[in-house]
Specification:
Largest sheet of chain B: none
CATH superfamily of one domain in chain C: Dipeptide-binding Protein, Domain 3
CATH topology of chain B: MetI-like fold
CATH architecture of one domain in chain C: Roll
Mean pLDDT of chain C: 89
Number of helices of chain C: 19
Structural class of chain C: alpha+beta
Shape of chain C: globular
Helix content of chain B: over 70%
Strand content of chain B: under 5%
Low-confidence stretches of chain B: 1-10
Structural class of chain B: mainly alpha
Chains: A mainly alpha (339), B mainly alpha (291), C alpha+beta (524)
Largest sheet of chain C: 11 strands, mixed
CATH class of chain B: Mainly Alpha
Strand content of chain C: 15-25%
Radius of gyration of chain B: 22 Å
Oligomer: heterotrimer
Mean pLDDT of chain B: 83
C-alpha cells in the first residue's frame, strides 16, 4: 500500500470515530436531567417569571432532547459548539482562549520529558545495574507514583513560598506587563515582541508545573530508552564491541536509539494526549488558566455546552495526535502499512 | 506460563528447598516482594483501622483544631479536630477496595467482551471494538470528570466513571492476546475434538492470557487509586464527611501552613500507588522478562 | 560520561536562569489576588455576579452612594440631590454639573435615561432591580434632571439606585459600540463584547482588559472629575484558593489577598510584612428547616425545630471561622436597623431534649441534610454540615449529609424538594427588603422553597416594604425578627466577616458590604 493511500485510509477511518465521540457525549449528557436554568440566570432571578421565560426561550430548553441533539450536531459541523451557560460566550471562543495555556504547558512538559528522559535513559542503559541506573530507576518509579495535585501543592509551598527560588502560581509574573497577544502562548508572544524580560517571566512560571506534569512522561521516556539500550547491549556483537572500549559504545547508543525511536514516537504521541488531560490536575493547583481548569469549573457548575465542547475538543486533539503518530510511524517503518 | 511451571516444580520438592527457592526468588525480584509487603502492611492497617486508630474518623473535637502531630495524634488533627491518622486509615477503606472493585469489574466486563471479540471475530468483534475505540478516544481523566460531574459526586459514581474508562483497555488487551492464543495448536486440537467454542475460549484460551493482564491489573489498581482521589480532590468523588484521601488533600490545600493536613493523606496515596507499581514491575520481571 | 554531565549542566543552568525573576514592577499598581472566577460579563446591564461589583464600582458611578462608614446613610453620587414626591411614586434626580465621563464629556440626564432603559430592555437578571420595584418610566426633564415614576411607593428605591447595576454609561460610546436601549435590546444590543474589555463610565478607573480566569486590568482615569486617584491601576489576579493568594502576597507578588479564610489569615498574623483588614459583611449562612407537612418529617412540629435550634453549638460554629464571624437572631443581619441579637437562640441541650420529648421524639429521629458546594467565612459547606451533624447527634437526631454540586443543589432546593438545607444569602443593595422580601412569603423567595407558610411573617414583610417612616419601620422589623425566631424555620449560623490580607504598605483600604472594596482611596 502506498503511503498516500495509507494516510487516506486512516483519515477516512477517523470520521466514524469522530461521529462516535459526539454520540458518546450525547448519551452521557442525556442520562442525567438537571435543570440548568439556575446556572443561566442566577439563583435570585429564578423567582422572576419574566426572566425565567425569556431564558427558556433563548436557550431552547423547551424543545425535545433529540431535537437539541440534532441541532447540536449540525452546529458542530458549522463550527458552533453552543454557548456556555456559565460564561455566556460561544464555547468555541472560550476553548480557544484557554487552549494556548494548555498547549504551552503540554509542549513544555513534553520537551522536558524528552530532553531529560532520553539522555538519562541512555546513561542508565549503558551503566546497566550501576548505582546511577538504580537511582534513576527509583526516581522514575517514584515519579510514576506521585499524585500530581499533591506534589504541586508541596512544590509550591517549598520552592515558592518557603524558599522563593521559583515563580509562584499563574502563567506570568503578576507585576509585569504581558506581551501583546498574538498566539496566546506567552513564551512565543514574548519572543515576537522581542521582550526578553517577559520571556524570562513566562519561562519562570512554566518551571514548576512543567516538572510536575512532565515527571510522569519523563519516567515513560526514560524507561523505553533504557530498555532499548539494554536490549542492544545484550546482543552478541555488542559484547565484542564492549571490550573495545567506550568509543565503541557510542556506536551502540546510536544503533539502540534508532531501535528505540519507534516505541518512543508512540509513547510521545500518547503522552502528549495524556499531558492534555493530566493538565486538569496541574492547572487546578497552579492557577493555570487553561482547558483543564475550564473543564473543572464547567463540571462543577454543570455547564453542559462547555463540558461537551471541552471534552469534544480534547478527544479530537487526542484522535488527531494519534493519527499523526500513526502516519509518522508508517513513514519510518513501512512494514505497518502492510500489517 | 513460566509461573505455572515454576510452581508445579517447587510443589514436589522437600520443604527446605522450597524455602530456599522462595528466598532466592525474593532476592531476584525484590520489587515484587517489597511491593507486596507494602501493600500487605497497608491492607492490614486498613483492615484493622477501627482497632488501631484511637479515635473514630469523624469524631470532632473543636478544642483540638489543627494540632500538629503528637503522641496522641500521630498525624495531627484537621480543622474540625478530627484525628488525621484515623482518617487516613479509614480513607484507605474507601480507596483500596474501590480501586480493586474497578479493576475487577473492568477486567471481567472488558475481558469477556474482548475475548468474545477476538475469538469470534466478525460483526461481534467490530461492534465491541468500535465502542471500545470511541471510549478510548477520550483521555481517561476527562471522561471520568464528565461522567462523575453529571451523575453527581459520590463514591459509586466515581467507581462507575473509572470502570467506564478502564474496561476498553482490557477489552483491547485481551482481544489481542486471544488472537494470538487462537492460533496455538492445542486450540486447533480442541476444536477438532468437537469442543464447544465457548468452552474452548474459557478453558483453553483465556488461561493463557494471564501474564500481561496481571501486570496491567497491578498497575491499574494504582492508577485507579489516583483517579478516584483526583476526582475527590476536585470535589467530584466521595461525599463528606467520609474520609477519603483526595478530598483530605483538598481540605488541606488552604491549610498549607499546617502541613500535616495535606501531607499524610498524600503520602498514603503515594505509598499505595508505589506498592502497586512495584508489584507490577516485579511481575513483569518475573513473568515476562523480555521487557 | 563527561559529555553527558556537561549536557545536564547546561539544562540546569537554563532552568536556573529562567527562574531568575526580573523585578520590572508596574509602578504604582495594586495587585489584588483572589477567587475572581465568577465573572461572566463586565457589561453593567448584564452582569449579576460578585466580582463585577468591584470592577463596576471602580469604573462606573451611580447616582447615589452608600459609604462604608455609615451604611444607613444615602449620600450623593453623580446626582448632587434628589427628591421624592408626596405620594412616594416620583423620584427626581439632579446631576452634579461637574460630573464627566472618562472621555471628558459631561454626564447628562440623557445618559441616565439611556443606561437605565437599556438595563431594563436587556431583560437580563439585573433588570430585576428596576422591575421588582415597579419601575414605570424615566423621563429627561432637562440636561441635568431626570424624573423616575414607580407603580407603587417603594421606600427602598433610593438604596437600589446605589446598586452597581444601575451605573451610568456614556450613551455616545455605548451606541458607537453597537449598544441600544430599544425595546428589543435583548436581541439587538451588540455592546457586550466591547464592554467586557472596556468601560464607558465616570469612575476613578478605566477597564483596560479582562482575560477570563486570569486577570482583570484597570488603569487610572486621568480625567476623573473628582481629581485623579493615587493608584496608577488595579489588577485583579485570579487564584483558585486563598492559599495561593496568600502565597503571592507573602512573597510580594501581590499587594492584597482578597477574601481569605481565618486559618489562612492566622498565618499572615505572624508575618510583619502583612496586615489584616476585617470587614463586616451582610452575608448570612443559615440552616433552613421546612415547617411543611409535605415531607412527613418530625420537623413540621415547631417544638422539634426549636429543639434543633437549641442543640446547635453556635460558639463552636463561629470558632470554625477562627472567630471571624457573628450571628444575628433571624434572617436580618446585624448592622441593619431592627436586627436584635438579644433574641438569638443559645445552646441548651436539656431544653432541646425536653422539647423533643414533648413533641414525641424522646430518642430523636433521623433525616437528611442537603448542602451544595462553596464556603462561607472560609469554612466549606461540608465542614459546617459535619459540625451540625455532630451537634444534633447529641440530642439523638441523626443527620445524613447529602452534598451535591451547587447547581444540582439549587435546582432541587428551588423545586421545593429539600426538607433541610444549609445555604447562604448575599445582598445586592442595602435595604431590609433585601431579606424580608425573600424569607417571608409562601409563594416567593427562599421561604417558598422550604414551603414555609407563616401568615404573620408574610404580613409583616408587606408592611415593612410599604413603610416610609424609618422609626415605624424599625419597630416592624423588630417584630419581624421575633416572629422568625418563634417560627424557627431559618436559623442563622453565621454572619460572615471578610478578611483581606494586605501588604503593610497598602493604605486606605476599606471593606464595603456591597461593592466589597473601594480602590479610590487606596495608596501604597
Amino acid at each position: 500500500m502506498s503511503l498516500v493511500r495509507y494516510i487516506a485510509r486512516r483519515l477516512i477511518l477517523t470520521i466514524p470515530m469522530l461521529f462516535g465521540i459526539t454520540l458518546v457525549l450525547f448519551l452521557i449528557y442525556n442520562i442525567v436531567q438537571v435543570d440548568p436554568l439556575v446556572m443561566i440566570i442566577g439563583e435570585r432571578a429564578m423567582d422572576n417569571p419574566h426572566v425565567v421565560e425569556a431564558a427558556i426561550r433563548k436557550w431552547g430548553l423547551d424543545r425535545p432532547v433529540w431535537e437539541q441533539y440534532i441541532t447540536y450536531l449540525v452546529n458542530i459541523l458549522r463550527g458552533d459548539l453552543g454557548t456556555s451557560f456559565l460564561t455566556r460566550r460561544p464555547v468555541l471562543d472560550d476553548l480557544l482562549t484557554h487552549l494556548p495555556a494548555t498547549v504551552e504547558l503540554a509542549v513544555s512538559s513534553l520537551l522536558f520529558a524528552v530532553v531529560l528522559g532520553i539522555p538519562l535513559g541512555i546513561v542508565a542503559g549503558i551503566y546497566f545495574g550501576s548505582l546511577f541506573d538504580r537511582s534513576v530507576w527509583l526516581i522514575s518509579l517514584l515519579n510514576g507514583s506521585l499524585p500530581p495535585f499533591w506534589t504541586g501543592l508541596i512544590f509550591l509551598f517549598v520552592f515558592y513560598y518557603s524558599l522563593g527560588i521559583t515563580a509562584g502560581p499563574g502563567r506570568f509574573p503578576p507585576r509585569m506587563e504581558r506581551p501583546p497577544m498574538v498566539t496566546g502562548l506567552l513564551t512565543v508572544d514574548s519572543l515576537i515582541a522581542g521582550d526578553v524580560a517577559a520571556l524570562n517571566g513566562a519561562l519562570s512560571h512554566l518551571v514548576l508545573p512543567t516538572v510536575i506534569l512532565g515527571g510522569f512522561t519523563l519516567a515513560l521516556v526514560l524507561r523505553v530508552t533504557r530498555a532499548a539500550i539494554v536490549e542492544e547491549m545484550r546482543r552478541e556483537y555488542i559484547r565484542t564491541a564492549r571490550s573495545k572500549g567506550l568509543a565503541e559504545r557510542l556506536v551502540v547508543v546510536r544503533h539502540a536509539l534508532r531501535n528505540a525511536l519507534l516505541p518512543l514516537i508512540t509513547i510521545i504521541g500518547l503522552a502528549f494526549a495524556g499531558l492534555l488531560s493530566g493538565a486538569v490536575m496541574t492547572e487546578t493547583v497552579f492557577d493555570w488558566a487553561g482547558l483543564g481548569q475550564y473543564l473543572v469549573r464547567a463540571a462543577a457548575s454543570l455547564d453542559y455546552p462547555a463540558i461537551q465542547g471541552g471534552t469534544l475538543l480534547i478527544a479530537v486533539i487526542y484522535v488527531v495526535v494519534n493519527l499523526c503518530v500513526d502516519i509518522l510511524y508508517s513513514i519510518l517503518d513501512p512494514r505497518v502499512r502492510h500489517g | 506460563m513460566a509461573s505455572s511451571l515454576t510452581l508445579s516444580a517447587t510443589e514436589r520438592l522437600p520443604q527446605r528447598t522450597w524455602l530456599r527457592n522462595l528466598l532466592k526468588h525474593m532476592r531476584r525480584y525484590p520489587s515484587l516482594w517489597i511491593g507486596s509487603a507494602m501493600l500487605g502492611i497497608l491492607a492490614l492497617l486498613i483492615a484493622f483501622a477501627p482497632i488501631i486508630a484511637r479515635y473514630p474518623p469523624n469524631q470532632q473535637n473543636l478544642t483540638m483544631r489543627l494540632k500538629p502531630p503528637s503522641a496522641q495524634h500521630l498525624f495531627g488533627t484537621d480543622e474540625l479536630g478530627r484525628d488525621i491518622f484515623s482518617r487516613v486509615l479509614h480513607g484507605g477503606r474507601i480507596s483500596l477496595p474501590a480501586a480493586l472493585i474497578v479493576v475487577v469489574v473492568s477486567l471481567t466486563v472488558g475481558g469477556l467482551l474482548g475475548a468474545f471479540a477476538g475469538f469470534f471475530g466478525g460483526v461481534i468483534d467490530d461492534a465491541i471494538m468500535r465502542v471500545a475505540d470511541v471510549t478510548l478516544a477520550f483521555p481517561a481523566v476527562v471522561l471520568a470528570l464528565a461522567i462523575s460531574a453529571l451523575l453527581g459526586p459520590s463514591l459509586n459514581n466515581a467507581i462507575l466513571a473509572a470502570c467506564a474508562v478502564l474496561w476498553p483497555e482490557y477489552a483491547r488487551l485481551i482481544r489481542s492476546q486471544v488472537l494470538v492464543a487462537r492460533t496455538f495448536e492445542y486450540v486447533t486440537a480442541a476444536r477438532s475434538l468437537g469442543r464447544r467454542e465457548v468452552s474452548i475460549l474459557l478453558r483453553h484460551v483465556l488461561p493463557n492470557t494471564w501474564t500481561p493482564i496481571m501486570i496491567k491489573a497491578a498497575l491499574d489498581v494504582g492508577g485507579i487509586i489516583l483517579l478516584v482521589s483526583a476526582l475527590s480532590f476536585i470535589g467530584l468523588g466521595v461525599a463528606p464527611p467520609t474520609a477519603e484521601w483526595g478530598s483530605m488533600v483538598a481540605l488541606g490545600r488552604t491549610k498549607f501552613y499546617q502541613w500535616w493536613v495535606a501531607t499524610f493523606p498524600g503520602l498514603a496515596i503515594l505509598v499505595s500507588i508505589l506498592a502497586c507499581n512495584l508489584i507490577s514491575e516485579g511481575l513483569r520481571n518475573w513473568l515476562d522478562p523480555r521487557m | 560520561m563527561r559529555r553527558v554531565l556537561a549536557f545536564f549542566l547546561v539544562i540546569a543552568i537554563a532552568f536556573s536562569f529562567s527562574t531568575q525573576l526580573s523585578a520590572r514592577a508596574q509602578g504604582n499598581t495594586l495587585i489584588v489576588a483572589g477567587r475572581f472566577v465568577d465573572v461572566i460579563t463586565l457589561d453593567p446591564g448584564r452582569a449579576f455576579e460578585t466580582t463585577n461589583l468591584i470592577v463596576h464600582h471602580a469604573t462606573y458611578e451611580t447616582l447615589l452612594n452608600i459609604n462604608a462608614d455609615d451604611l444607613s446613610k444615602i449620600v450623593p453620587g453623580l446626582a448632587e440631590s434628589y427628591s421624592i414626591s408626596e405620594d412616594g411614586l416620583e423620584y427626581t434626580f439632579v446631576l452634579n454639573p461637574k460630573a464627566k465621563f472618562a472621555s471628558g464629556n459631561p454626564v447628562t440626564a440623557e445618559d441616565v435615561r439611556f443606561s437605565w432603559t437599556r438595563l431594563l430592555n436587556l431583560k437580563g437578571s439585573p433588570s430585576s432591580y428596576l422591575k421588582d420595584f415597579g419601575f414605570k418610566s424615566i423621563e429627561v426633564v432637562d440636561e441635568r434632571t431626570v424624573k423616575v415614576r414607580l407603580e407603587s411607593p417603594q421606600p427602598a428605591f433610593a438604596s437600589v439606585v446605589t446598586a452597581p447595576a444601575l451605573s451610568i454609561l456614556e450613551k455616545a460610546v455605548v451606541v458607537a459600540q453597537g449598544g441600544t436601549d430599544a425595546e428589543d435590546a435583548d436581541q439587538t444590543d451588540k455592546a457586550k463584547d466591547w464592554l467586557d474589555q472596556n468601560s464607558a463610565g465616570s469612575g476613578p478607573f478605566i477597564l483596560k482588559r479582562w482575560s477570563p480566569n486570569s486577570e482583570i486590568v484597570m488603569v487610572r482615569n486621568e480625567n476623573y472629575w473628582r481629581g485623579p486617584v493615587a493608584l496608577e491601576g488595579v489588577t485583579l489576579r485570579v487564584t483558585n484558593d486563598a492559599a495561593s493568594a496568600l502565597q503571592l502576597v507573602a512573597r510580594g507578588d501581590a499587594d492584597v489577598a482578597f477574601g481569605v479564610d481565618a486559618d489562612t489569615a492566622e498565618q499572615a498574623r505572624n508575618n510583619p510584612d502583612l496586615k489584616l483588614n476585617i470587614g463586616q459583611t451582610l452575608n448570612l449562612l443559615y440552616l433552613g428547616i421546612s415547617p411543611s407537612d409535605f415531607f412527613k418529617l418530625p420537623i413540621s412540629d415547631v417544638r422539634v425545630r426549636k429543639a434543633i435550634a437549641h442543640a446547635i453549638d453556635y460558639d463552636g460554629v463561629i470558632a470554625l471561622t477562627g472567630g471571624f464571624a457573628d450571628r444575628p437572631a433571624a434572617m436580618l443581619p446585624l448592622g441593619i436597623a431592627g436586627s436584635d441579637p438579644s433574641l438569638r437562640y443559645t445552646r441548651d441541650l436539656e431544653k432541646a431534649k425536653a422539647l423533643l420529648a414533648e413533641a414525641g421524639y424522646p430518642n430523636g429521629f433521623s433525616m437528611t441534610l442537603f448542602i451544595g458546594g462553596g464556603s462561607t467565612a472560609g469554612v466549606p459547606r461540608e465542614v459546617i454540615a459535619a459540625k451540625i451533624q455532630a451537634d444534633l447527634a447529641e440530642v439523638g437526631i441523626q443527620l445524613e449529609i447529602n452534598q451535591q454540586t451547587t447547581p444540582n443543589f439549587l435546582t432541587a432546593f428551588r423545586a421545593q424538594e429539600l426538607p433541610m438545607v444549609i445555604s447562604a444569602w448575599t445582598p445586592d443593595y442595602l435595604d431590609a427588603t433585601m431579606w424580608t422580601a425573600f424569607f417571608s412569603k409562601a409563594d416567593s423567595g427562599v421561604s417558598r422553597r422550604l414551603r414555609m407558610d407563616e401568615p404573620k411573617i408574610a404580613e409583616l414583610a408587606d408592611q415593612i416594604a410599604a413603610e416610609r417612616d424609618p422609626m415605624v419601620r424599625e419597630r416592624l422589623l423588630r417584630e419581624y425578627v421575633k416572629a422568625h425566631v418563634e417560627a424557627a424555620v431559618f436559623i442563622p449560623l453565621l454572619q460572615e466577616q471578610y478578611i483581606d490580607v494586605l501588604r503593610s504598605n497598602v493604605q486606605g483600604y476599606v471593606f464595603h458590604p456591597v461593592y466589597l472594596t473601594d480602590f479610590a482611596g487606596v495608596s501604597k
